[in-house]
Amino acid sequence: DTEVTQTPKHLVMGMTNKKSLKCEQHMGHRAMYWYKQKAKKPPELMFVYSYEKLSINESVPSRFSPECPNSSLLNLHLHALQPEDSALYLCASSQGKTGQETQYFGPGTRLLVL
Amino acid sequence: QKEVEQDPGPLSVPEGAIVSLNCTYSNSAFQYFMWYRQYSRKGPELLMYTYSSGNKEDGRFTAQVDKSSKYISLFIRDSQPSDSATYLCAMSRPQGAQKLVFGQGTRLTINP
To answer: So what's the pLDDT on residue B43?
Structure first.
């Protein structure tokens, strides 16, 4: 089973709202990722957690706040977003072992910021 | 110059044709190569993963890597309308393998 699940599938929020995106995997992977994808563009890496510790932050604005409660779960907390943050937000996971970083993606959360 | 170049297409072929999708790269440090398929409004799905030069086959799909030319390809045989999607190549270095570098993606349409 190579399934990564994400909730919600769609989210509409105002610029003053606080919301969270959730991601879960049960493959025993120890690395989890958040990506942002705009239309007709490839995914852009935002954050990487390795063994529940933040290992990569691609200079993402602080209005995006990641959290990794345990090895199976990954959250992305959203606050005071801008309309340009509207995009498909993808979660991915990989084994977390050197040379075994094949990433498996979830279906994404389509976010619209009004 | 981008690290990974991929023709964005769009590419339109008749059903049953052989499709060739390609990416070139400039950094010889890339050692791991992947192809993802992404349907509209869905997440990318891993199709092929290779780490050595040569061919790797999985059903109707063949991934080819030529490290000397810094060139990778994905071939789809007996293409089906269900293969219509955007195909993304991705690659990474042994050090920093968690940072995938993607091509721009090629939009492929298979016409019945």
So the answer is: 95
